[in-house]
Amino acid sequence: MLLPNQLTVLRIILTPIFIVLFLSNEPLLIQISLGVFLIAALTDWYDGWLARKFNYITEWGKFMDPLADKILTSTAFFGFVSIGMLQFWMVLLIVLRDFLITLLRAYADYRRVSFTTSTLAKWKTFAQMFFLYYLLILYTLRTVPSLSIGYDNWFTVLLNQEMIFWIMLSVTLFTVVTGITYLYSNRFLIKQLFTRAN
């Protein structure tokens, strides 16, 4: 197996390790979970770089790499649902949209049909990841005793539940809109894709 594909597998393996540590309620383990998540995220960047630089591109990698990304980020989002910071229905909409588009694009690649990715969709990914890192970093830093005691007021403001609700609602609506826009702008290719399949 090529190194980029090994890194993709590693990212999938690190995902359950991350969530177990994250939900442990032990400050040290929660802090370690952030490190595990960052390592997993780094493998995403590195395997993509290797694949492009050395042309290590396989059909398996083209399918599994974006899927591994969605598994990691979806798990993190659901982790915040479990601790009561995010609403389940919002995360569910984001996950369903992202997995639907990811699987559709993978099938399109398999059928040799090329879909266009809009700038709006790229901004969607940026918004999701920025907000996710925001939550992960602040939530983890709050478990550090010296910070939680000395800067508790800051954490109270930055992790305000009402603010998080409205930001997450905005990210969710943005995600859903980009999904609908993506399906609409590629509707003829999608029709062609499934007509060919039949």
Give the ordered list of helices and strands: HHHHHHHHH
Low-pLDDT regions: none
- Please indicate the percent range of residues in DSSP E strands (runs of 2 or more): under 5%
Q: How many E-type strands? A: 0
**What's the structural domain tally?**
1
> What is the CATH level 1 assignment?
Mainly Alpha
Structural class: mainly alpha
Number of helices: 9
**CA gyration radius, whole angstroms:** 18 Å
Short description:
By secondary structure, this protein is mostly helical. It has helices at residues 3-22, 27-54, 59-82, 88-110, 119-141, 145-150, 152-158, 161-185, 187-197.
Describe this entry's structure for a reader.
This protein is mainly α and 198 residues long. It has one domain: Four Helix Bundle (Hemerythrin (Met), subunit A) (Up-down Bundle). Helices cover 84% and strands 0% of the residues. The protein has nine helices and no strands. The longest helix is centred in the N-terminal third of the chain and has 28 residues. The chain is globular. The model has no long low-confidence stretch (mean pLDDT 87).
